Amino acid sequence: MKIRIVFAFATFFLSSLISLPLRAADPASQSDADRLQNLEKAVRQLQQRNAELESEVKQLKSKNAPFAPVLSGPEGKATAGNEGKAVFTAPSPPPVYAQAAGSEYKLTLGGYIQANLESGDVSAFEGRFGLTALKDRFRLRRARITLTGDFAEQFDFKIEGDFEQSDAAITALKSVDLKTGKTTTVTNSNRTEFSGTDIFINWHTIPEANLKIGQWKAPFGLEQITPDTLIYTIERSLPTGALTPERQIGAQLWGKPLTNVLPEQKDLVTYYAGVFNGNGRNFNNNDNNEFMYVGRLEVLPFKGKVMGQEASLKIGGDYLFSRDETGTNISPALNLKVNADGSLTSFSLTGPDERHAYSFDAWLKIGPFDLIGEYLDERVRPRGAATFSEFEANGFYVQGSYFVVPKKLQAVVKWEHLNPGQFGNDGIQSITGGLNYYVHGDNVKVMADYVHTWSDFREANPQFGEDQFNEVLLRMQVVF
């Protein structure tokens, strides 16, 4: 009723305005035909404006009514079809409205899926052979949902969860007998529940000093902090998985100190300095009253052109220090502890320890060619009554890649070696050859790897079985 009154009033007002020039004109100078033509023109203008107002009112009503886009809309219309039958065509879908609950001006929902086919000596390059051997399988490697957002107040955030089933043993300290000192642990070696990965808030108003709080990958190791969707081989190297701390809960200061001093060279230096609980992701309880300290420094000494090709060189270095309690898993991402047959499992401490670790990496890029290398070292020492022997583990990988077909087909070769440092000749080495086909960049990608692995321990102790292993891996990746 109110809408009709508004239309009537608008019609009367507009007709009055249009009629003023008609009345003011000299009657002698206008014929009846001219007057009629002007009147018809005014009526057409009023009809057009009324139609526009009706359309605007309908849009406003659909926005204000929460169920209007679902329950209202034009009915389907019957049109001529084959054999004279009426074919009902569905109306065009109504617009979908999404509104952020907070004051953020940007909200993005996304994620990705990685599905594998693994055949042969599955994950032998990770030390899974003999006692820990796996069988041929299809594997849902990662299935993640991500929500990111930005606030006008210079805050951004990320919430990401994973549906995948993990092979990595998740070992947590459950209880300690205060009289005997005996500990009880609980292990979930095939995690199936939805679990958090990256969950953090970042304050970025000062580019030289961003403040990040929550859970994410501790800044240690180039290959580890490279996103899962961007690495050039299907799986990361064994040294990366065994010697990096993976995701942790804590706080971090990071930034580019030259952003305002030398704007043209703002990417020359990037630093990260973090303090974390040190006992892995999704554990709100710290293992003790001490923290893990992690730092990383990246330098980009060259970015320009070489032989007409875009080129860059990035160099990085990391350091880690942590004091851990009994039951803490110090290799949450992959395996580090050497079994009696030379295979590897996750390393859960049987007593308190102190860890020092460092790494160096370099990434050279010239057009379609990439060369990446990294070295990692970690020393683990017992504290108090020794329940395990001190050891120093180290490893490296060198990886080269080249686009055979620009931006479409990429060939990759990687050589890696891990020395767990717990027995003589306990090293594991692998050579990987692969092809990556970029259907639509990294958003839709098909990957194929062949991995040949050999065990120094098995070669020195042939009574435990084969010392060389082969595996084929295939992956389909979709980012949405």
Which architecture of the largest domain does the CATH hierarchy give at level 2? Beta Barrel
The CATH homologous superfamily name of the largest domain equals Porin
Element-level helix/strand string: HHHEEEEEEEEEHHEEEEEEEEEEEEHE
Q: What share of residues is helical? A: 10-25%
What portion of residues belong to β-strands? over 45%
Radius of gyration: 33 Å
Summed up, the helix count is 6
CATH topology term of the largest domain: Porin
Structure description:
The chain has 480 residues and is of the alpha+beta class. It folds into two domains: 56 residues; 368 residues, Beta Barrel (Porin). Helix content is 16%, strand content 45%. The longest helix has 33 residues. The N terminus is likely disordered.
Index terms:
alpha+beta, 6 helices, 16-stranded antiparallel β-barrel, 2 domains, Porin, 480 residues, disordered N terminus
How does the SSE layout of this entry go?
Blueprint (H helix, E strand, L loop, with lengths): L1 H23 L7 H33 L3 H4 L5 E4 L5 E4 L16 E15 L16 E14 L4 E8 L7 E7 L6 E6 L6 E9 L6 E8 L4 H4 L12 H6 L3 E9 L13 E8 L15 E15 L2 E16 L12 E2 L5 E2 L7 E14 L2 E14 L8 E15 L3 E11 L8 E13 L3 E12 H5 L7 E12 L1
Antiparallel strand pairs: 1-2, 3-4, 3-22, 4-5, 5-8, 6-7, 8-9, 9-10, 10-11, 11-12, 12-13, 13-16, 14-15, 16-17, 17-18, 18-19, 19-20, 20-21, 21-22
